[in-house]
Amino acid sequence: GRAGGAINVDREHDRDDVLGVQETTGAAIPDEETIRKARQRRELLRNGEPDFIPLQGNGRASSRIDRGEFDREEASKDESSFVREQIEKGLRTMAIRQQAKQAGQPGGNGRGLDLKSLDATTLADDILNKLDMRLERVVRTLRQHEHGIARTSETLTDTVKRLFEDEKILQDLSDEFEKAQEMRGYVRALCSMLHEKSPILEELQYQSLQSRTEHARALSGGLQTAARGALVSASKGIEAATNVLFGGGDEDAARLAAARAVADADESLRSGDHIPVELDEFGRDMNMERRMMVQKGTSVSDIAGKAERTFSARQEEIRLELRNVFADTDEQFASLSAVRNRLESWKASFANQYDATFMGLSAPALFAPFVRLELIRWDPLASQPFTEHQWYSLLFDYGAHAPESDPDHQVIPSIVAQVVVPWISDIVRDVWDPTNVNTPGSSDGSDGWDGSDGSDGLDQCRALSRTISDVLVHYDGEDKASYKSVGTLLDAISDKLGGAVAALSADTPSWLPSAIAVTERAQAFRETIFQRGTLLLACVCCFDDILPRASVDGLVEPLGKSLLQLLRSYVASAPACADKASQLCAAVGQASRTGGSALRALLESVRDVLLALDEKSVSSALASVISLL
Fold first, then answer.
1. Closest alpha carbon to 598 in 548, 560, 543, 541
2. Rounded (5°) CA angle 26-32-38
3. CA 80 to CA 507: how far, in whole Å?
4. String of b and e for 75-93 (b: at least 16 CB within 10 Å)?
């Protein structure tokens, strides 16, 4: 502070020296000599040599104002004197500039200037203008600084916000990475487990299908054996009765001859020679056991009972094995619900990651073994549809909240096409028998086609048609797998119905009504064939809105010919003919309203047969036929 005060004093002396020289010389700018003298005087003052005569003593320490005291005096000045001095300096400077401008000189020191002689208004205006200009610059500078501070504050705020966002993004990425690693390990372990369990499930499915096939073959084989034996004995009786009638004998003689021929035929049938040889894939005769049972006199009901007991025991073993398939598996892998919840939780938390790994396309393959586990115990020919299964209810709303383009919406259609439909096709091809008649007709004398008839074949057809309808709900024609599997299933149904129609046509006899009237075995056989025919017609009508129209017409046309042939054999008894016509109309049911040309042609032919009788006993049956046309 002391050194600073000395420098300020020196600068003040220099300025006074220069101004003094300017006053004496009258020059606006000091020359070199004046500057040199001013520097000499400054050096004398720095060396402590005064340029005046001291009044007393040495004078060096006492005559001059101590610079420290000077600084303190300057510092002790109040604010008002400082402001006043600054205003006087400003006025002096402005006055000098004004006089210099008037005199045409560039400068002046303003000493000896009479401030009172100046125009106070002009000076005040100039001062105010200068102050306003400086104030404007200060305000502008202040605003610029404030704006800069505001921008800096916003930048800092945005930076902090971005830092928090980046921190959250990093945390999310960290969580996503951890979840990805977790799900990677889970899916890998799940796939490894399913890779081990899938062969077990496939083997159990094969065993279940094999058991069902053997059971169905045993039942149908027993019925076919009985039907073939009845046809042989009835044909022998018809042949004997025809010979008697053509030979001029009466009905009693023909009836006696037919009974004798039937008895002889039954005796020869006990050898089992009428049962054909049927080889399996290993070259073994599958009918050998049946032939032996016939030789022993075993009835059809006994054969069916044995087959039923064997089938039940084998199915129970398979059910026990199915319970143990996932018994050694951890809970998070052992059930469809556990896997479904794990995948849904993953998608809910990290949907992008779920989509990026194509899990929506892989989910059906992960769910399929659990679905197959439940399907092995399911009979498509029973009344319960697969839409009531547990797996269906668990996966029904899987991906329900996702967009329609999300692959999760195709989970159930994919499973139906790849797992459910092939199982149904196997059952249709190897197990289903549309002509499996158990106890046709009801005990109360009704027509027997109202759903309480007890015919296993019709119940199976109705259950199968409902199942196919459920399959078509999930059918995706643009998906090749779905198109192929559903097409294979419909072809299997058409082939099975076509085979049954062909077999019925082959078994339909063309006997004389007079010979049938005296042969009881022939009458019973005709009744059985007609029941099989009407049952088969009802089964075909169950698939009227499922199979192609051409396929349905191709089945109805040959079947209708056989039924009409049997119906005409009843014309000798108008009540019996009317009863059979009513059964036929009941078999057609509501399918006549949507049926094709073949079904309509059949009904028109039945109407013509009834009109030819022209009796009141057929009026009710005739009205039923007309109502269907």
1. 560
2. 80
3. 138
4. eeeeeeeeeeeeeeeebbe
Closest residue by Cα to residue 537 from 562, 519, 512? 562
Q: Please give the structure tokens belonging to residue 182.
A: 């977790």
Q: Are 293 and 153 spatial neighbours (Cβ–Cβ below 8 Å)?
A: no
Nearest CA among 329, 315, 418 for reference residue 376: 315
- Alpha helices by DSSP H, 26-78: 32-47, 67-76
Give the global pTM. 0.69
Closest to 538 in 3D by CA, of 444, 436, 427, 423: 436
Question: What's the number of CA atoms in the CB half-sphere (13 Å) around residue 219?
Answer: 21
**Can you read off the two tokens belonging to residue 445?**
């004398």
CB 588 within 8 A of CB 542: no
| Alpha-carbon distances, residue 282 vs 268, 278, 279, 286 (angstroms) | 30, 11, 8, 10
Q: What whole-number distance in Å separates Cα of residue 338 and Cα of residue 387?
A: 20
Closest alpha carbon to 533 in 493, 560, 510, 512: 560
Q: Which residues pair with 279 in a beta bridge?
A: 285
Per DSSP, the three-state class of 285 is: strand
pLDDT digits (tens, 9 = 90+) for 126-183: 777 888 888 888 888 988 999 999 999 999 999 999 999 999 989 888 888 888 888 8
Residue corresponding to tokens 């196997």: 426
CA distance 579 to 441: 12
Burial class (CB within 10 angstroms; exposed 0-12, middle 13-18, buried 19+) of 439: exposed
Q: What is d(CA 274, CA 221) in angstroms, rounded to the nearest whole number?
A: 13
Q: Would you say 196 and 490 are in contact if contact means Cβ atoms under 8 Å apart?
A: no
Torsion angle of alpha carbons 135, 141, 143, 146, nearest 10°? -130
State both tokens at 337. 């619900």
Q: Which helix (H) or strand (E) holds 600?
A: helix 597-613
pLDDT tens sequence across 513-550: 888 888 888 999 999 899 889 989 989 988 888 898 88
CA 373 to chain centre: 21
User: 522, 512, 566: which is closest to 231 by C-alpha?
Assistant: 522
Q: Residues of the chain with pLDDT > 90: what percent? A: 22
Residue 535 in contact with residue 440, Cβ under 8 Å?
yes
Structure tokens at 601: 């042609």
Q: What span, in angstroms and rounded, lies between the C-alpha atoms of 18 and 14?
A: 6
Spatial contact of 323 and 314, defined as CB atoms under 8 Å apart = no
Q: What is the pLDDT of residues 170-185, one digit of tens each?
A: 988 888 888 888 888 9
